[in-house]
Amino acid sequence: MPTPLSTASSRDRIAQARVVVTSPTRNFVTLVVTTEDGTVGIGDATLNGRELAVAAYLDEHLVPLLVGRDAGRIEDTWQYLYRGAYWRGGPVGMSALAAVDTALWDIKAKRADLPLHQLLGGRSRDKVRVYGHATGETIEETVADVGRLIDLGYTAVRAQTAVPGGTGTYGVSRPGEIYDPAHGSLPEETVWDTRSYLTHVPRLFEALRDTYGFEIALLHDVHHRLTPIEAARLGASLEPYDLFWIEDPTPAEDQTAFRLIRQHTRTPIATGEVLSSVHSVQTLITERLVDYVRTTVTHAGGLTHLRRIFDLAHLYGVRSGSHGATDLSPVCLGAAVHLDTAIPNFGIQEYMAHSALTDSVFPHSYRFADGYLHVGEDPGHGVHLDEEKAAEHPYSPAYLPVARLADGSVHDW
Ligand code: CS2
Ligand code: MG
């Protein structure tokens, strides 16, 4: 039987794969794969707060299997690393696999001298609609911040506001900083008050509709903090404000919880940013329990597997709404914009602009204009890594916060 090694001409083989960990504003893990003919492809493997686990998985367990393989056999490499591991899936393994997959698609597109979306079937749309983030300590501050995004051209905005009685509310940035919840060598501990939240959030959206009318699409992230019946109540109380979606109303891994939410509200639902496999969204999609699936390139096994998820979703009228927080590197966003451009059932793409420093370490050809991301026409996914600059910003430990209730017990953050 021919093996991948014996069928590849020597120039098609992977000569080297290296992991680069860098922290230009925040930590990123990047896999750099080089073929014998000198083509370089890169993939994002960043898992917020657990970065070095993925770096070690790549360094110790995947890189040794890659060297000498045919770089063109993307599907075979995916199956070999996924099924061959015996221990399948999980966020660490799937992020590592995603980086390999993304780098190999980058290489294939560069060697074909085509932008990646051409290999995924070509354009289904000219540009990719995105939503931005508005935050505030008070309803007034969030209303003003939504206005700032509208002025920047956004047609869709996610709105979060601090909740009276809580601390360090999810989604609210530190003064003068880009929103990034990961900080410090120990997790920050915040206090969560569900009752206060459930009465406060409808007031925010009432104020937003009073100020800006109904044309702007408004989104809200619940961040897995409610029980199914609480989520059902929130969805129903937000119906007058016509949200584009509520996101992660309950912990995403409990797929059947969404049945109960669905019975009680017509507010559209999105979930999936913490999920990494088609199997973890299968019930959500096939029972049409959600409207948008938020899995993304980096945490869901790369373009190969994410495409599989979105194809399943397409059969059931579910659309994509990929996670795009700044803890996913520009490499993830660049690859995602190609997939968003190509698939028939694209819904929306989350977009939080990276810092200028992050962008200088990862120069890229995608660009934001008038509320949309425009995919570049450079060969590959169009995102590069400046290794010299990356080396100036070494890894710096940072953890996501942990939420507790007033009685001190741990809650979902
Ligand atoms: C979030 C993220 O973007 C989102 O919707 O839920 O900000 C999330 O908290 C981080 O990506 C965690 O790493
Ligand atoms: Mg979210």
UniProtKB/TrEMBL annotation:
Gene Ontology biological process terms, A to Z: amino acid catabolic process; carbohydrate catabolic process
GO molecular function annotations of the record: magnesium ion binding; mannonate dehydratase activity
One Pfam family of this chain: MR_MLE_C
Domain Mandelate racemase/muconate lactonizing enzyme C-terminal span(s) in chain numbering: 139-268
Signal peptide positions (record): none
Highest taxon, organism lineage: Bacteria
PANTHER family: D-GALACTONATE DEHYDRATASE-RELATED, STARVATION-SENSING PROTEIN RSPA
The protein, known as: Bifunctional D-altronate/D-mannonate dehydratase
